[in-house]
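TASK: fixed-backbone design
INPUT:
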C-alpha cells in the first residue's frame, strides 16, 4: 500500500513540476539567463534539458507534443554548435540525443535528426582522431577527452543508444579499450590517470593529477558504457579485458566492508603512495562522484562479466546507502548530479535491472524526501541540478517505466 501511495504522490509531484515548466517565457519571465544556464543547447542547464523532461512525459502519455515542440524550438534558438566544444551535453550531439527520443515516438523531425546525426558523427570522428594521436604520443589524457559530459564516453553512450553496433559506435568502444591499456609507469598509475585537477585544468591542489572514479568525469562512465555494449552483444576486440582492467582498479580501491562497500570519488598520488583512503573522504552518495554512479557502473560490469559477486557488491552498496540516514542527510539538494534525484534514478535502475526487492522497498522513503524538498520554492528549472531532473526521476518512479531509448542514457545509467 505504501508503495502505491508513494508512486501516486511521485507522479503528482512530477506533474506539478512539469506544469511549472511548460512555457519558456514563464520559466524565464525576465529574459533568458546569462552564462551556461542560458545556452539553449545545454542539456545540463538550458532549454534542451527541459525539453527532455517534456519528451519523456509525452512518450509515456503524460504530456503533449505541442509542449515538446515549443521546447525543442527554444533549444535550437541560435546557431547550433558542432565545433570541438560540442558534446553529449551541448550542441549538435545533445540535440541529436533529444530529437532521437522525440522521433522514436512520433516519426517526426526525421530530416532534422539526419542533419544532427551527420554533425555528431563528424565531430566524433574528429575527437577520436585527436584521442588516438594523444595515445600514440603516450601522453596522459585530458579530462575532456574521455569523460561523460564533455568527452568520448558521452558520445559513445549516445551512439550506442542511437545506432547500436554501427561503425562509429564500435570506433568509440575501440578507443575506450585502448584508453585502458597499461602504460609504463613506475608509480603504477592507471592509463586514464589525469595530470589535472577536478575541473579538468592544471591545479596546484593536484600537482600530480588524480584518478577519477566518477560517472561525470571519471573512468566510471567508460566502464558503464563498455559494460552496456557487452550487454548489447557488441563484439569489439579487447572489450571484455578493458572492463576487467577497470574493475580490478576499482576493486583495489574499494572501501568499507562487505555490508557497506563504497568507492572514492577520486584519489591523488599521495593516497596511491600510502595505499589507503581516509574514511573521512567517503564521497556523498551523488551520481557524479558517489555511489549513485559508481555502484550502477559496477552492477552493469558484473552483469556484463557474469560476475554475480560484483553485482551483489554493487547492490549491497546501494542498499546500505538507502538505509543510512546519515548518508541521505548528506544529499539535501534535489538534482540529478549532486542530489536526491540522482540517487533515486540510479537506485530505481539498479533495482529494476535484477528485480532487487530490497532496494525497491527503500525507494518510497527516498521519493518522499525528494517530494517534500521539491515542494519548497526557489529551485532552478534546469535538468542536471534542478526541477526538470527531479521531475524526471519522480516521473520514472511514479510510472515505474522508462522506455527505450532511455532518457537516463545521458547519465550512463541505461
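OUTPUT:
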Amino acid at each position: 500500500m505504501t508503495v502505491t501511495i508513494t508512486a501516486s504522490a511521485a507522479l503528482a509531484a512530477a506533474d506539478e513540476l512539469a506544469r511549472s515548466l511548460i512555457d519558456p517565457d514563464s520559466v524565464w519571465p525576465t529574459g533568458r539567463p546569462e552564462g551556461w544556464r542560458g545556452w539553449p543547447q545545454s542539456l545540463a542547464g538550458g532549454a534542451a534539458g527541459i525539453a527532455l523532461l517534456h519528451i519523456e512525459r509525452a512518450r509515456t502519455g503524460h504530456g503533449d507534443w505541442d509542449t515538446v515542440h515549443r521546447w525543442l524550438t527554444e533549444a535550437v534558438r541560435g546557431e547550433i554548435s558542432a565545433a570541438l566544444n560540442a558534446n553529449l551535453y551541448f550542441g549538435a550531439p545533445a540535440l541529436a540525443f533529444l530529437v532521437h527520443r522525440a522521433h522514436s515516438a512520433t516519426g517526426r523531425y526525421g530530416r532534422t535528426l539526419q542533419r544532427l546525426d551527420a554533425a555528431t558523427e563528424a565531430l566524433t570522428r574528429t575527437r577520436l582522431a585527436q584521442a588516438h594521436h594523444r595515445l600514440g604520443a603516450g601522453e596522459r589524457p585530458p579530462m575532456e577527452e574521455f569523460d561523460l559530459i564533455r568527452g568520448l564516453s558521452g558520445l559513445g553512450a549516445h551512439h550506442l543508444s542511437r545506432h547500436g553496433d554501427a561503425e562509429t559506435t564500435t570506433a568509440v568502444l575501440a578507443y575506450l579499450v585502448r584508453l585502458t591499456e597499461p602504460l609504463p609507469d613506475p608509480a603504477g598509475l592507471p592509463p586514464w590517470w589525469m595530470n589535472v585537477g577536478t575541473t579538468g585544468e592544471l591545479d596546484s591542489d593536484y600537482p600530480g593529477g588524480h584518478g577519477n572514479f566518477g560517472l561525470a568525469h571519471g573512468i566510471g562512465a567508460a566502464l558503464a558504457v563498455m559494460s552496456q555494449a557487452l550487454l548489447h552483444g557488441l563484439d569489439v576486440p579487447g572489450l571484455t579485458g578493458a572492463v576487467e582492467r577497470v574493475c580490478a582498479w576499482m576493486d583495489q580501491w574499494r572501501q568499507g566492508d562487505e555490508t557497506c562497500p563504497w568507492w572514492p570519488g577520486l584519489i591523488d598520488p599521495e593516497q596511491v603512495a600510502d595505499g589507503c583512503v581516509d574514511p573521512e573522504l567517503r564521497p556523498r552518495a551523488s551520481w557524479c562522484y558517489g555511489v549513485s554512479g559508481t555502484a550502477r557502473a559496477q552492477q552493469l560490469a558484473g552483469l556484463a562479466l557474469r560476475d554475480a559477486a560484483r553485482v551483489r557488491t554493487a547492490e549491497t552498496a546501494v542498499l546500505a546507502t538507502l538505509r543510512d540516514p546519515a548518508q541521505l542527510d548528506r544529499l539535501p539538494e534535489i538534482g540529478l548530479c549532486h542530489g536526491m534525484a540522482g540517487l533515486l534514478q540510479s537506485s530505481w535502475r539498479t533495482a529494476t535491472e535484477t528485480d532487487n526487492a530490497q532496494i525497491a522497498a527503500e525507494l518510497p522513503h527516498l521519493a518522499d524526501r525528494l517530494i517534500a524538498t521539491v515542494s519548497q520554492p526557489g529551485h532552478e528549472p534546469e535538468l542536471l541540478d534542478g526541477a526538470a531532473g527531479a521531475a524526471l526521476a519522480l516521473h520514472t518512479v511514479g510510472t515505474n517505466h522508462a522506455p527505450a531509448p532511455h532518457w537516463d542514457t545521458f547519465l550512463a545509467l541505461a
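COMMENT: The first helix runs from residue 2 to 19.
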